[in-house]
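Standup notes
- HV: blocked on the assembly model, inputs below
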Amino acid sequence: DVKVTQSSRYLVKRTGEKVFLECVQDMDHENMFWYRQDPGLGLRLIYFSYDVKMKEKGDIPEGYSVSREKKERFSLILESASTNQTSMYLCASSLGWGQGAYEQYFGPGTRLTVT
Amino acid sequence: GNSVTQMEGPVTLSEEAFLTINCTYTATGYPSLFWYVQYPGEGLQLLLKATKADDKGSNKGFEATYRKETTSFHLEKGSVQVSDSAVYFCALTGGGNKLTFGTGTQLKVEL
């Protein structure tokens, strides 16, 4: 079974702190994604990566950056956390091509609270 | 751009009731359509999918038919159980590897 793990289930940070959210997948997937999930808004794509050191902005990249130095690991970075970044963050991965590319496997999520 | 519209929840049903969760979409080209489910405290998991018009996706008693003429992909189940309580997301991909999600519909099933 594909396993996507996220470094923390719950995280509390202060305004202005630099925050790192880590995601690791064990199925050699090419694509990795970061979403945030908010009530009434569903999932919104922050960034995704289709290869090591490659990244593309999603729908809401402002205030975030990402890093993918190894194929299995995709990090989301909040350079200076703000209260409006309090949310559930979900990481996902998928194959790089063909029909399998459409099925994304999700981690359990990190609930981040910025105070 | 692509968009997905789902019925608002929460939807509350008694066990063994019939379930329909409506989903309509706007997309260019020929999208693939998906239903994902999120159980409490977990990430999303794929429930079913359909990749072309008139395809029916099915899994765990759930079904959805890709209707191009009405741009719909409604989720149905004939007899829900308490264990089906979750949030259901309709999604599409219209090319490339990115998914566009609806806002989710919470289902509560009571005894």
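- HV (later): unblocked. Chain A has a mean pLDDT of 92. Residues 60 and 115 of chain A are 21 Å apart (CA to CA).
- Next: hand off to the docking folks.
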